[in-house]
Design goal:
This protein is mainly alpha-helical. It contains 18 helices and 2 strands. It has a two-stranded antiparallel sheet with strand order 1-2. Strand 1 and strand 2 form a beta hairpin. Helix 13 crosses helix 15 (252-263). The radius of gyration is 27 Å and the shape is elongated. The protein starts with 6 loop residues before the first helix and ends in an 8-residue tail after the last helix. The model is unreliable at 53-61 and 290-323 (pLDDT under 50).
């Protein structure tokens, strides 16, 4: 029997070790903030760790039933469930490595364990990454999870977490992970969360990203981009982003969507919707009702404005809102 299969050998420094209340509270809080699923929950379920009840095995995907363990006996049970599973040894060792990182001397005991069992580097790096991610240390976590040696594991879950976690305020982190790992995204909720971050980060990148999707997603994301730009906080940033939006190379279809969204769709009530449509018409030489003076909002004699005035009108906070 390998040493890691014996609980008393694995926890030789403290065989009565149990998670402290403070540690348990922090883990439970982290789970709530992570939409009720930590990466370790996902890993335990994926590796088929089973919850034992009354001497029988009950299959469950609710890993939070046994993590974090609330007592020394619960920890022993979790260890036993991992060891009794059908996974290869290096998968079991990876789970135990994660748990050892929860101990008070986690740096020393976990590292010592990984060396003793010759845990492959890619498994250690992955566990280091998800352990940090589960604890909300996003930037340091990505330092591990974007290592070239790794085969992307749970990329959609990681990407969604980076986009939606309430304590993750750096819009560039999910994009850094996305562009580095290049995951295949099949979930619509992940796609939408990623685009929301992309639209905040770069108008031009978001525009060309929209074109990678066929109808109706193309139009939906295109309109979302317009909304994100015009609905942004007032100031120089909105001014610059609005000018960038208006000068994008729309095709005929996108041109029609732009006009429809701002004159008769949900976007007609956005801040500066009328001026955005009017300046786009002037910039492209289109003879729009708004640009010619009899606009869709019932304003007459309002002559076309020069493109350069759009940015300044935003900066001064004087851009007319569509009503």
């Amino acid at each position: 029997m390998a040493d890691f299969e014996n609980f008393d050998v694995l926890f030789a420094s403290d065989r009565s070790f149990a998670y402290g209340e403070q540690t348990i509270t922090k883990i439970l809080k982290s789970r709530r903030l992570a939409h009720n699923e930590l990466l370790i929950d996902k890993l335990l379920a994926t590796l088929g760790v089973e919850r034992r009840e009354y001497g029988t095995f009950v299959m469950t995907n609710i890993a939070q039933d046994f993590y974090p363990p609330r007592s020394n006996q619960s920890l022993r049970n979790l260890h036993s469930q991992i060891i009794d599973g059908a996974s290869p040894d290096h998968h079991k060792q990876s789970l135990l490595y994660y748990i050892l990182k929860d101990t008070l001397d986690h740096s020393r005991s976990a590292t010592k364990f990984a060396r003793a069992v010759f845990l492959p580097e890619k498994y250690r790096i992955f566990i280091d990454g998800i352990w940090l991610l589960d604890r909300g240390d996003f930037e340091n976590a990505l330092g591990y999870l974007t290592e070239p040696v790794l085969i992307p594991t749970f990329p959609e879950e990681i990407l969604h977490l980076l986009c939606t976690h309430p304590d993750q305020h750096n819009d560039k982190l999910p994009l850094a992970y996305y562009y580095t790992v290049s995951p295949t995204i099949t979930s619509s909720k992940v796609t939408e969360a990623l685009f929301a971050k992309l639209a905040l980060s770069s108008v031009t990148e978001a525009f060309f990203w929209c074109r990678q999707h066929g109808e109706p997603s193309h139009r939906k994301f295109f309109e979302q981009l317009i909304h994100t730009v015009l609905d942004g906080p007032e100031g120089e940033s909105r001014a610059m982003r609005s000018v960038e939006l208006i000068h994008l190379p729309f095709n005929a279809e996108e041109e029609a969507w732009f006009g429809a969204y701002l004159t008769e769709g949900k976007g007609m009530y956005l801040h500066g919707a009328k001026d955005a449509y009017r300046v786009r018409a002037v910039a492209t030489g289109k003879n729009s009702p708004i640009a010619s003076g009899a606009n869709a909002y019932g304003n007459h004699g309002d002559h076309a404005m020069d493109c350069s005035s759009l940015g300044s009108s935003y900066e001064q906070g004087s851009m007319t809102s569509a009503r």
